[in-house]
Inverse folding.
């Protein structure tokens, strides 16, 4: 969820192979018994149900980029076959005898340490060293908030296509919330938040009310380096207003929570939560 495929696709789009296909594969999402046929293709009659010849993903990705996600989940048997592809730049379809040359860039990603997998005998050392040419470490999104504005711009462009009222940007307040939020779901969560905001937005600029309430609330509770940003100042002023309003309404009704809730047009449960938040005791406002 840290955005591995997005980074791989960006590399592809900014390379000389951008005119070729970008083929992503999650090694953990395909049943083991189908992986070889998916990767290398098969000839007619290679196995039961193989009625026609099928081109594999590696062959399809020729002159482009083949992205292997969750490489650590690739079975050992197929690791050997992939090593041969990396070394020889050739494949052989399942059930076939012809060697087919391919021209493909392979980008691989893993959510666990491949060095540790090699030490445990779960990943081939020779394949690891062949693939480990240039490494990119991708930390969780909360550790790289400087990436968020660029990701937001990318998602607005990608998911806004085809919408009748396509927002082109987010307001400064929205961006401050997005940067301050901790993103436990990483880039995938940010992507879904932007999709939802685009669905709700009715203006050219995404506003705070277009974001999920829990995102705004949790971002407001997040520690910040500086407390003079719009969102921080807004939060303090709203808190001050709520506290003074609650005191005034309790004073007017002498601590009668039912009457206070009716005047404020709030459910009693909501009023009690606010009183607890600001440590206000209705008994302190009762007369006599």
């Amino acid at each position: 969820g840290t955005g591995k495929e997005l980074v791989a696709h960006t590399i592809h789009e900014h390379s000389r192979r951008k005119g070729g296909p970008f083929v992503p594969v999650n090694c953990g999402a395909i049943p083991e018994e189908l992986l070889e046929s998916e990767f290398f293709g098969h000839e007619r009659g290679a196995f039961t149900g193989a009625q026609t010849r099928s081109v594999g993903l590696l062959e399809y990705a020729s002159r482009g980029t083949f992205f292997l996600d969750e490489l650590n989940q690739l079975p050992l048997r197929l690791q050997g076959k992939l090593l041969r592809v990396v070394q020889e730049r050739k494949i052989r379809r399942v059930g076939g005898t012809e060697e087919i040359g391919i021209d493909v860039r392979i980008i691989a990603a893993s959510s666990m340490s491949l060095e540790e997998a090699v030490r445990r005998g779960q990943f081939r050392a020779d394949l690891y060293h062949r693939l480990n040419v240039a490494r990119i470490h991708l930390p969780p999104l909360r550790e790289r908030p400087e990436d968020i504005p660029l990701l937001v711009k990318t998602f607005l462009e990608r998911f806004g296509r085809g919408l009748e009222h396509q927002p082109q940007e987010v307001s400064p307040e929205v961006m401050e919330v997005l940067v301050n939020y901790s993103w436990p779901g990483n880039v995938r969560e940010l992507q879904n938040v932007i999709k939802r905001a685009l669905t709700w937005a009715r203006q050219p600029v995404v506003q705070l009310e277009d974001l999920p309430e829990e995102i705004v609330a949790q971002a407001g509770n997040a520690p910040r380096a500086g407390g003079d940003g719009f969102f921080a100042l807004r939060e303090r002023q709203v808190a001050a207003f709520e506290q003074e309003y609650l005191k005034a309404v309790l004073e007017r009704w002498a601590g009668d929570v039912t009457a206070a809730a009716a005047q404020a047009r709030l459910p009693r449960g909501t009023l009690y939560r606010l009183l607890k938040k600001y440590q206000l005791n209705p008994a302190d406002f009762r007369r006599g």
In short: The chain has three domains: 4-131, 141-221, 230-285. The first helix runs from residue 4 to 13. The chain has a mean pLDDT of 88. The chain is about 45% helix and 10% strand.
